[in-house]
Predict the structure.
Amino acid sequence: MEAELVEGLPTGDRWRYEPKWDGFRGVFENDGGELALWSRNGRPLLRYFPELRAVGERLPPHSALDGEIVIERDGALDFDAMQLRLHPAESRIRKLSVETPATFIAFDILLWNGEALHDRPLAERRVELEKRATAFTLSPQTTDRAQAQRWLERLEMIGLDGVVCKRADLAYKPGSREAVVKVKHHKTCDCVIVGYRKNGNRVASLLLGLYADGDTLDFVGHTSGISGDLQKDLQRRLPPLVETGHLGDGRMPGGESRWSQGKDLAWVEVRPEIVCEVRYDKMESDRFRHGTRFLRFRPDKDPRQCTWDQVRPARRDGDPTISGLLESDRSLPRSHRDRA
């Protein structure tokens, strides 16, 4: 089921809430002893995660689970480690499967021992899933909206990606957004503009930077969708600031983009003098995961106030942990889980 992104958690008794795991979505099948792990686009994934074969072997013949493949490192999910698995060399994959083993976290049951369950309401499927959770790792679920709000606010500390909200009264509907929505905790950050990409004479996107300890300026991502008065303003402001040599030795802009159709996208470095506020949803170790949204200029901010501290908040006592999330659903009776 595909999840539509919405602004806030829905309310009402018909909704169930789950953490949004940040990995690769996958349907795990045991088809009479033949194992397969399919991506949402129908691509086979099991060859990239051979350590997960043991999960499939514990399923009865003619069974299928929907879930997420994740890798945990140092107490947080590591999406970069997931991407390293998509490698053509089997020897490299097997090495990584030992160094950074993956986990399959199940959140739905479609078929079990030949019995089709996908057409039952989610509330019934969840009961069936919990009965069989000794064979696999189970994602937690709650009907408590307050608990879901706490997840939304603090799960980013351990690399999760928001909250998924599911209709308890609906069957599993592949490709439909009626039964599932997702909510992300969008945040804002003040960044210094370190350059821009060009499309002809237009500013196609702004390249953003943050200061590390000392004077090191790191490239962290971009913001696009620049039009109207903002486009005119940037065409006036940026050319006089063109100057190289300000970025550190780490990650750099440039190179091919999946949107560039094989062409290197031209970019221009500028003196780090302009500060802007952007909205973002996910920060990886050294970059914004997705493009950000430009909100406004911040002439009141000194560029050196744009530091990594903004996007690396300190942990608080009582913050969730990955092991705590995965164990809480097993450690409590079903009647008490929603109060955990």
